[in-house]
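Dear support,

I submitted the protein below through the web form. The confirmation email said the job was done, but the results page showed an empty box. After a refresh the structure appeared. I'm attaching both so you can tell me whether what I see now is the final result or a partial one.
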Amino acid sequence: MPAVHRRIPAPLLFVIGALSMYVGAALAVGLFDRLAPFAVAVLRLIGAAAVLLAWRRPPVAAWRGVRLLRALAFGLATGLMNLAFYEAIARLPLGTAVAIEFCGPVAVAAVASRRPRDVAAVGLAAAGVLLIADVRWSAAPLGLAWALGAAAMWAAYIVLGSRVATVGNGIDDMAVGFAGAALLLSPVLLFGSPDGLSALVDPAVLGLGLGVGVLSSVVPYVLDQLVLRRVGQARFAVLLALLPATATVVGLVALSQVPGPAEGVGIAAVVGAVALRSRDGDPATAGRTTPTT
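What the results page shows now:
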């Protein structure tokens, strides 16, 4: 690790990664007037895949057999998670969508360990989501449904990501998985623009799509790896509680999205749930692993 990274406190590196992720999400919102949210999610996947393939150049072995299928399943889970998340933030404030999405990792942690603390965390997260849902059901029921779908895909992403991480090279396999998922999901781009293909050949749109992929996928993943090497899995898991709060701040500053009182309490409850279930330290894959969200 270069010396410059060691001089930056690990929590600050984590916050930088979180800010990068959600600033990328805010940029994605800016693309929604040119492309459908699902098309922006696919562009993000393509951009991240292009950067990772150019950086890692996965060996031939990564493109064969069970390893390829495992990576592809992981990539598809990631792509569908991003797609559902972008459809959610097209209808919900950023911090609200992230808070609901966190039901996925909280539930996985509880099912995996079944400790009383984890069960309590699920209850706290459920209470937070119910508060948010009470606010959002009448205003944006479809956004709520997409956010819950993103939570389910995050849970799948965690399970598949842990398998990818334990065999072969995780970053190489992520590059392969993202590339395969981008190829399979790319046809939806044909239906993702009211202007037809003109938006997809616009250099500004393509440039922003690449930027979203780098900011929301590549940068957070690399910084996660740096933080994990320095603080270990237990402290890293505790840091996850910063993510919904960071998303709320980015939504407030970049998108002028102000949560109401009940919504704010709900987001705080989800933050508390993440911190509670992470207190003893869960596997790193219960985090973003990339987070890509």
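Response: this is the final, complete result; the empty box was a page-load delay. The CA atoms of residues 99 and 267 lie 6 Å apart.
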